[in-house]
Automatic annotation (TrEMBL):
Keywords of this entry: ATP-binding, Membrane, Nucleotide-binding, Transmembrane, Transmembrane helix
Major location category of this protein: membrane
Protein name (record): ATP-binding cassette domain-containing protein
Membrane-topology descriptor: Multi-pass membrane protein
Superkingdom of the source species: Bacteria
SMART domains: AAA
Segments forming domain ABC transporter: 344-580
Keyword NAD listed: no
Species assigned in the record: Marinomonas transparens
Domain ABC transmembrane type-1 span(s) in chain numbering: 22-304
The UniProt record lists the keyword Lipoprotein: no
Amino acid sequence: MALGTGINTFLPFLKPYRRQVVLALIALVITAGAMLSLGKGVQFLIDKGLASGSEAGLTQTLLVFLSLVFLLGVGSFCRFYLVSWVGERVVADIRKAVFSHLLTLSPSFFEDNSPSEIQSRITSDTTLLQSVIGSSLSIALRSSLMLLGGILFLLVMHFKLTLILLTCVPFVVVPVLYFGRRVRSLSRDSQDEVANVGRYLSQALRHIKVVQAFTHERHDEERFSSAVEQAFRVSVKRITQRSLLTLMAILLSMGGIGVMLWFGGKDVISGAISAGDLASFLFYSIIVAGAVTALSEVIGELQRAAGAAERIMELLNVSSDITGGQEGSVDSENSNMLQGETFIELNQVTFCYPTRPNTPVLKNLSLTIKQGETVALVGPSGAGKSTLFELLLRFYDPQQGEIRFGHHDIKDYDLTQWRHQLALVPQETALFDQSVLDNLGYANRETDKNAIIDAAKRANADEFIQLLDKGYDTRLGEDGVRLSGGQRQRIAIARAILKDAPILLLDEATSALDAQSEHKVQAALKLLMADRTTLVIAHRLATVLNADRIIVLDQGQIIAQGTHVQLLEECALYKRLADLQFGNMN
Ligand SMILES: Nc1ncnc2c1ncn2[C@@H]1O[C@H](COP(=O)(O)OP(=O)(O)OP(=O)(O)O)[C@@H](O)[C@H]1O
């Protein structure tokens, strides 16, 4: 059964808490035992206590009864506490495991799966699991035991009456299973719809300025509302099935009790059984019926949880297509290399993005970069310059060809170690809603405050940071809305300084900068590039002039390389680009 699959996948998460699970089961058995003994207590109370007319007998039976009640109370407390505890604990562990796993997945995974959809799985699906494990699972376990125990007691007490009761069971179980299954698939749909709503919401709010600038509010409102309504419609379907489930369970189980009472009543009248017998029989029947009803209700819930579990497990089962190798230490490889020796080498690299498998972005590209060299990449928009950086960072692997560092393919190195070799200054600096200090320290969590401030100074960032209301402790809003383009870039440069990696990947952004900040960024970059092997996507003449070599990329291929002067003469595309891009500086 699919519910079983859901539970199986959770077993590894339950394993560390075996002790608590065993204790919960013991509490479960004790409470079920106490509850079932209560029926016998009722029989005693009527037949021995009341019918005997002895007050002492009555008191004695009551004391036994109260002891059972006490046991039941304490046992229930322990059962509920332990089952809920395990539920919460497991869900917390699952959240952590899913997040850690997601961080290892390659960026291509997130192109196919929207982050907000994933977020919904981690938050709303696990919350559903939490509440279901915390309450429904506890009820389901208790009810199952009560059902079994109750039937056993009934069989021992009165075989004929029990058989009458049991003939009703298939009438209850079959519809319960049928509706339960439907609830489950609808529940999955319902969670998917909730995720859709979440996705729409986060998109609109993230791009609120665009929404407002294009006065797109009404349109967004309508689309959001139709997403919400769709989620509502799916939920209503689920609710209908669940309500029907409950209706069936009550009608059938209670109907069975009615019939049984009728037969039992006849036996009491004929003197075949005592009134106490019938009362305790009734007690067990109600327990059994109650257990069936409760089970039918929670089976729906458990099915919902299994649906949610499935969605979470799907995430945990995705494996990253970018994995690291075991090959020797990158650091020692690096330190063995001499200035001017081949450092990075691209051999016949062909690459398509996974979302466009038939459109190669880089075609048979070969390139050698020497240690300490500064190589500028120029080319029209869409030529594949940023893609080259993404391959070096191993966000993707080429379909053909290889990228080598020293004596090995970069795929052979441990992924983390390899990425330690690269410092990226991206065109768009990602900032987090944390303090400036935290944002800078992102590059290297081992460094102390002084080193961070020193790096900020060298990146020409200290000056504007000091002017912020709380200096280095100022929180940057989500997406760093409180910083200008040039300031953000200087933060990125400071990060690269802190990372102190031997290879620098620089994606210049000029558009965001005015002359003054450009000058400051320039100075900071110069310092950063000294003694490093640098690949720079160049938009500035200064960068191009300072580069040891300029590579001209067009449609994923290198069409020329050389110095600025050489290329101006030899490469028409370069000349055109230079006129356009650097025209104002020429
Ligand atoms: N994640 C992606 N999925 C699919 N195609 C992509 C992806 N990223 C980039 N591309 C495509 O790959 C091609 C090369 O893009 P790339 O960003 O490398 O160009 P670029 O030379 O850096 O351009 P620019 O100077 O405008 O940044 C483009 O046609 C682009 O549309």
